[in-house]
């Protein structure tokens, strides 16, 4: 059996796709280790970790076993009035490995939903404190937090095309993306806008929401840890909560288990997703401090107002437990550090090309930023012809390999990038 591509083209939406001019989609038959097996027999090295999720690669025996064992017990059970071992074990692990003040865990079904939950937590918290006027989010330009309405409202207004949804979208506050680069210090001028805004309008601001250290889908920008540390202090000074969206950065991607650790800070609310199950299925989590949780529950509602049907899905929790164990028991720091130095070394020569604006790498993230947007369908086909799977966007051609990728496999990716971009 092969995939019916005509049916696909005529009836199926793919992410951010048009039904009028559908670019080619590649039928994948199976995946193993760091490779995708196309139906036509070609094998591609996966430089995307399936949108940054598959830390351990595909078809991982430990994760398969966890799913199979859990399947024999129960695939799902409601979480209202019921609990189960996979969820309890997962939440225990999350409380243990995240910064100490984060003590309460809300299991959500996707990254976007965990951001919705984080925003609702912040709003309910201030409502309970008798300050319902603290209802705005302060977000960074170039940020990305998901596609549902609440999450979309704190994404970059331009790339998120807020004007399309203007009548239905909550209006929040934005400051420019951090100008100070990762590894650099932060000058006063870099913090001026956010300082002024917090000083003037903290009375209406519930929380600052940001992606710590790496702004992902909004531009793959790496910014100064000092910026993050200073924003944490500003939030304390002006009594505003800090929401760290670690959905892309969590579980070691930037070289620290959580990107907040680069700045030695802890947020009041943290969102996790993407790599939580090692890329096996959808699951996310929102963690918060005792202060936030107690505040919410002392308020008018007396409860936190959220409860998804598939909350705490046992199958997803069991796989997440196996994925976290596999990560923590393995030498992930060494692997991510080795990927970083190889990416830096092999992508560096590309800066000499007149088409290339910037080259950067942090942890297991390697980015080539072009002067002009790339034609995705064309470059994707050229990459596939070279046995490599990447999904560039805008001016960015980047890779986020699974941590288990071997040097010669990563070299295949970086040399394809070099050949096509230089
Ligand atoms: C991917 C992503 C999200 C959204 O997660 P979904 O699972 O796609 O809903 C939110 N925030 C960040 C930083 C992300 O990278």
UniProtKB/TrEMBL annotation:
Pathway: Cofactor biosynthesis; biotin biosynthesis; 7,8-diaminononanoate from 8-amino-7-oxononanoate (SAM route): step 1/1. Its cofactor is pyridoxal 5'-phosphate. The record marks 16 as: Participates in the substrate recognition with KAPA and in a stacking interaction with the adenine ring of SAM. Substrate binds at residues 51, 144, 274, 307, 391. PROSITE patterns: AA_TRANSFER_CLASS_3. It catalyses: (8S)-8-amino-7-oxononanoate + S-adenosyl-L-methionine = S-adenosyl-4-methylsulfanyl-2-oxobutanoate + (7R,8S)-7,8-diammoniononanoate. Pyridoxal 5'-phosphate binds at residues 111-112, 245, 308-309. The keyword Cytoplasm applies. It is found in: Cytoplasm. It holds the Pfam family Aminotran_3. The modification N6-(pyridoxal phosphate)lysine is found at residue 274. Keywords: Aminotransferase, Biotin biosynthesis, Cytoplasm, Pyridoxal phosphate, S-adenosyl-L-methionine, Transferase. InterPro entries: Aminotrans_3, Aminotrans_3_PPA_site, BioA, PyrdxlP-dep_Trfase, PyrdxlP-dep_Trfase_major, PyrdxlP-dep_Trfase_small. Its EC number is 2.6.1.62. The keyword tRNA processing does not apply. PANTHER family: ADENOSYLMETHIONINE-8-AMINO-7-OXONONANOATE AMINOTRANSFERASE. Catalyzes the transfer of the alpha-amino group from S-adenosyl-L-methionine (SAM) to 7-keto-8-aminopelargonic acid (KAPA) to form 7,8-diaminopelargonic acid (DAPA). It is the only aminotransferase known to utilize SAM as an amino donor. Homodimer. Belongs to the class-III pyridoxal-phosphate-dependent aminotransferase family. BioA subfamily. This is Adenosylmethionine-8-amino-7-oxononanoate aminotransferase. The lineage of its organism: Bacteria, Pseudomonadati, Pseudomonadota, Gammaproteobacteria, Cellvibrionales. The gene is bioA.
